[in-house]
Amino acid sequence: MTDFDQVAPALDALAIEVPSWAYGNSGTRFRVWGAAGTPRTIEEKIADAAQVHSHTGLAPKVALHIPWDAVDDYTALSSYAADLGVALGTVNSNTFQNESYKFGSLTSADERVRKQAVQHHVDCLEIMTATGSRDLKIWLADGANYPGQNDLRQRQDTLATSLREIYDQLGDDQRLVLEYKFFEPAFYATDVPDWGTAYAHVLALGEKAFVCLDTGHHAPGTNIEQIVTSLMRLGKLGSFDFNSRFYADDDLIVGAADPFQLYRIMVEVVGGGGLAPDSGVALMLDQCHNIEDKIPGQIRSVLNVQEMTAKALLLDRDALTRARLANDVLGANQVFMDAFTTDVRADLAGWRENRGLPGDPMTAFTASGYLDRIAADRVGGTQAGWGP
Ligand code: PSV
Ligand code: MN
Predict the structure, then answer these.
(1) Is the C-beta atom of 179 inside 6 A of ligand 1?
(2) Considering the entire predicted model, what is its pTM?
(3) Domain 4-377 maps to which CATH number in 1.20.120.530, 3.20.20.150, 2.40.160.120, 3.60.140.10?
């Protein structure tokens, strides 16, 4: 048995949730680019997401964003997804595109606005009950641009009150996952800027509240894997939003900017038991494909996560422990790097073929002609986009 054969069963547990918004058009504040075949409806987004799963076996769930993906009948939407071989996953709320939230939502000092934002989350919980989704993910754009603009203490107090009102409405099997981000759109003070703030809030809420770690939401140079391991140690890492970045919250393909960082993160996830089915750590993508084709962009993304996970599983942890205990600095580093530099691509192709999947999903998807078909079929209507 090769080393890879030994880790292959653990790889079977890998499941990566894809975001509905990755299939819509996106861009920057300068331009949102259109593309032939872009979905007009959530049903078309789900159909595209199902392609990612059928080519890789890695992406069984699709996250929704409300109200972007709002429909009249969520039970019917779940059945539609199931017929295509996927399930509906995390529900993402949106309190950043309504005029009333210009100066804040869950942190607003204006009670009418705050109540509106709380009610939006309660509505999301109802949707989750219909879709069978476990997680309500909250990312807030709330914050200030100028010193003195907001009462920083009031914002934390108000946020705690709002989160409590939402938390108290969670069903038995539902969870609240709070995401942090250090800046943007607020440029001076973001109300949930870091994992410490998110952790303090979810700790106060209770056992159904967790932190979401978006890999693009840290200052340059931050040791993200150390945050991962701290949150796992505290039992409060609820989910990842995977993507990669060179400068800010770039939302590029995970593993594209810094594959070594993704490997280091997966080493901590594997070591902390995060791949176990009952770990409670959801691996999600939060990406936008501004200029590349979206479905292949998503396929590339889940393959990158799988590749770095395989390397993390191959890490010889016994040898690493021995080197560490001997204070063998370079020896430990070599063991760590040996797994990272192991080429697992042929083994992963074999893993896929053994499971009835294409050995090379990128080539198989291109050959399927799906992109040409949707370009021909999806004419008229309004293409979905990351926006209102
Ligand atoms: C905005 O920064 C953002 O990318 C957050 O990371 C959310 O998770 C995502 O949008 C969807 O609301
Ligand atoms: Mn995110």
Answers:
(1) yes
(2) 0.98
(3) 3.20.20.150
